[in-house]
Fold this sequence. Notes:
- By secondary structure, the protein is α/β, with parallel strands linked by helices.
- Helix content is 43%, strand content 15%.
- The strands form three sheets. An eight-stranded mixed β-sheet has the order 2-9-8-7-6-3-4-5, with helices on both faces. It has a four-stranded antiparallel β-sheet with strand order 10-11-14-13, covered by helices on one side.
Amino acid sequence: MSKMQENTGNQYKFAQRMSNTPRSFVREILKVTENPEIISFAGGLPNPQSFPVGPISTSVSEVLEESGSEALQYSTTEGYTPLRKYIAERYSSQGLNVNEDEILITNGSQQCLDLVGKVFLDKGDTVLLEKPTYLAAIQAFSLYEVQFKSVRLLEDGVDIDEMENMLSTENIKLFYAVTNFQNPTGITYSNNKRKKLAKLMRDYDTILIEDNPYGEIRFMGSSIPPVKSYLDEGILFGSFSKIVSPGMRLGWIVAREKVMEKLIIAKQASDLHSNYFTQRIVYQYLNTNPVDEHIQKIRNLYKKQRNLMIKMIEEHFPPQVKYTQPEGGMFLWVTLPEGTSSLELFDRAIEENVAFVPGQAFFAEGNGENTMRLNFTNSDDKGIEEGIKRLGNVIKERLSQN
Length: 402
Ligand code: PMP
């Protein structure tokens, strides 16, 4: 075959980095759950009832009327300064001292993962993850051809002893953690664990990436300062997805100036800047609406949904099944008895028109066959009641076959 034929045939010369990066398992599952008959606990979607459609519509008109031609222009990579100031002030009011120069607006917090990869990760580097971890972080970092190690999550955060052992024996470049209401487990790091984690990161000169898209969605207990408040050099991600709208795709990175310089270069090369019009709309919305009341409404809604799901689990799941009881966020995590395959269970559940995410997708190094993630924010009460009942029956049926 001639060279020309090779290039135009079905043998494209894809970059090596693509060969180890699979499509997102969750996104594939979501295709199955598009069938409206299916009660889905699989997605990671906020409840659309919580979207401020009316106020956003007003903000769009106001931005266009007051500064339309400017808002439709290109802008700076760093992001709209008043929006960055707003974020910095919100942190300061919560006890974390940050100024707007330490904030870069991104295309959702998902882009933060990619930018961190561009700035810090070389081929062959080792990235430490929680076990289990956010699936799309595995995907984002995989594109940088890194190796993964993972450390066990306990009820109050990562296993610090195991982690110290790993840091002292392996050459680990960065650790990625979701410290509040983790995706997928719903687990939150205790304050004590945060302090210990900060110390370890410093002692072993490891970069901490603290991803916090759910922090504001705490509906029980009291909020805990980010690890970054104990580790100034830590890198923190935030997002408007869970408090305003995920479709608007706005998030941010908080990092020291030295890191910020590199992140800005990476972002320039990638997309010049995040959608400026959307930044203006979100800023207008935040500035002209009672945002705390809005967030409180989301918390109340999710708390109700979480409580109902737990009540139904208590009633319908067999007692050998364990589950987390998150104080916020959107997910809870179910652990079935050893030897029960949640993948097999998934197929049976789909026959009963109910869906979840089999947990093994969230383990970078395998395992987790007997686990599953349930989302409680995107089903109505009837869906939660009926879906958990059906899932309980499928689990009981499976366990009776063991
Ligand atoms: N990090 C975590 C832990 C998440 O759960 C999500 C959303 N599923 C993201 C990042 C990405 O969120 P976004 O890009 O919408 O801010």
